[in-house]
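Need residues for this backbone.
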């Protein structure tokens, strides 16, 4: 209790409003990890309500070289917000106000702790649309989405979080407040600095406000949900959809293992007998969506699917998405340990990625469940470990290594949307050439010379 760190934290506590800096064991434990496996209890948890408080925390931490790890909702999948070197877990959860929704400028200004689905529901009531839709959107925060450049099913048409961040307020490691970008939909003043912070995983600064681009809400949606006997046929159908000149707002694909798990969790009979399942969603004006869906259905029917179901309208579509969003939890329900890898390959290599998954299963005797955003080539390859088997962790590491090497050989990347965090750190050197790693290190040193922000991660 009398260590220099403990004394510094007591000093900081006295400078902040009551309740902002906490050290009770319940709060510390609740801020040790995310949805991945690693956890490290911080020495203190800061729960600021204002940018001014974040500034005070960072100025102090910078002076005393105390590690600070930003945290949104703790729903990351790579251990990104784990305070690996202890110090302060800086939770933005209480900075959760929507400051403005402006239908004329098509922008929303929000604090980082706003839950993604809350913002989406609010703007949709005004006929506006914030497209980035991670499957965790009911739980994750905008700040976390920005720091991981989160994507989701709609990325295939609408892009990822990066494409909606017009401006940010960020507090740098030494407490300097920088307002970058703005509220205009185009801006070429200087470097694209606000984008540097998108996907920076809390290593470069703490986002305290974001100005987000909104779109008009497409008034109508329809889904073709299609079951196949083989993954090959499903992949060929994805190609046929794009070859037909369609740009769906989602193209999601799942394998048999995932479908069985989803059936067990949700009780749905929708996937019975299917070895692969494809969800294609179209959005736009009602008449054009319906006309396009007729054509799309004909294209898909030519691929000899086992089942085709077309649903029309937001309510019916949401029924399908409700099941889709359960896939991740359904795999967890199997009782096996799930290592979820959000690898991404060029769109044309998706079938090869599924084949790679099957090969891993054969070579390492580990079940592999694959599902995800086929339209982006971003398929979640889940190694499903039976922890009762001897040597399973060693085999899993070898399988992951083979997966990442295979993905890179296909021209892909080791993470499409979850980030590096701790989970992918062992493969950072493999994935990124030395000159690019050095550029990362130089940027990090320039913005955080004492290395206090999220230390122990990939830079
Ligand atoms: C069931 C499930 C499904 C998921 N599906 C998807 C999906 O479809 N697409 C997808 O992209 N992800 C998905 N994820 C992963 C996760 O939800 C995203 O990474 C999300 O962006 C994390 O947000 P969070 O608020 O929970 O961030 P946290 O986990 O709290 O933090 C994530 C990272 O952001 C940093 N950070 C957080 N807030 C700030 C801030 N204000 N300033 C600076 N840095 C900050 C942290 O330091 C950390 O490095 C899923 C996760 C789960 C559990």
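Answer:
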């Amino acid at each position: 209790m009398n260590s220099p760190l403990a004394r510094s934290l007591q000093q900081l506590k006295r400078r902040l409003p009551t309740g902002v800096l906490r050290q009770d064991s319940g709060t510390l434990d609740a801020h040790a990890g995310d949805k991945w496996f690693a956890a490290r209890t911080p020495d203190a948890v800061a729960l600021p309500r204002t940018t001014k408080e974040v500034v005070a925390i960072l100025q102090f931490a910078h002076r005393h070289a105390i590690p600070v790890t930003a945290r949104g909702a703790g729903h990351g999948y790579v251990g990104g917000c784990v305070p690996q070197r202890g110090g302060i877990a800086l939770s933005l959860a209480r900075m959760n106000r929507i400051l403005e929704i402006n239908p004329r400028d098509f922008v929303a200004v929000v604090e980082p702790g706003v839950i993604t689905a809350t913002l989406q529901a609010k703007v949709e009531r005004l006929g506006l649309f914030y497209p980035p839709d991670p499957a965790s959107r009911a739980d994750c925060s905008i700040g976390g989405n920005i720091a991981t450049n989160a994507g989701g099913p709609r990325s295939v048409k609408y892009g990822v979080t990066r494409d909606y961040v017009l401006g940010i307020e960020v507090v740098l490691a030494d407490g300097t407040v920088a307002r970058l970008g703005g509220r205009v939909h185009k801006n070429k003043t200087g470097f694209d600095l606000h984008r540097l912070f998108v996907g920076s995983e809390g290593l470069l600064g703490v986002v305290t406000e974001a100005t987000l681009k909104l779109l008009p809400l497409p008034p109508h949606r329809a889904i073709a949900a299609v079951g196949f006997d083989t993954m090959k046929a499903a992949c060929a159908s994805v190609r046929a959809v794009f070859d037909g000149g369609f740009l769906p707002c989602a193209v999601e694909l799942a394998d048999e293992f995932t479908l069985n798990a989803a059936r067990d969790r949700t009780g749905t009979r929708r996937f019975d007998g299917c070895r692969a399942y494809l969800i294609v969603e179209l959005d736009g004006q009602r008449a054009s969506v319906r006309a396009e869906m007729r054509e799309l259905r004909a294209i898909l029917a030519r691929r000899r699917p086992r089942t085709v179901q077309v649903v029309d309208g937001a309510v019916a579509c949401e029924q399908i998405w409700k099941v889709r969003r359960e896939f991740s939890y359904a795999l967890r329900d199997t009782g096996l340990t799930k290592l979820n890898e959000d690898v991404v390959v060029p769109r044309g290599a998706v079938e090869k990625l599924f084949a790679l998954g099957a090969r891993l299963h054969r070579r390492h005797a580990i079940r592999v469940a694959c599902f995800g955003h086929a339209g982006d080539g971003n398929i979640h390859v889940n190694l499903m470990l039976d922890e009762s088997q001897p040597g399973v962790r060693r085999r899993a590491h070898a399988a992951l290594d083979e997966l990442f090497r295979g993905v890179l050989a296909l021209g892909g990347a080791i993470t499409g949307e979850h980030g590096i965090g701790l989970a992918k750190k062992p493969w950072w050197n493999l994935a990124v050439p030395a000159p690019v790693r050095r550029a990362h290190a130089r940027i990090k040193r320039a913005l955080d010379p004492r290395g206090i922000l999220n230390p122990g991660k990939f830079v």
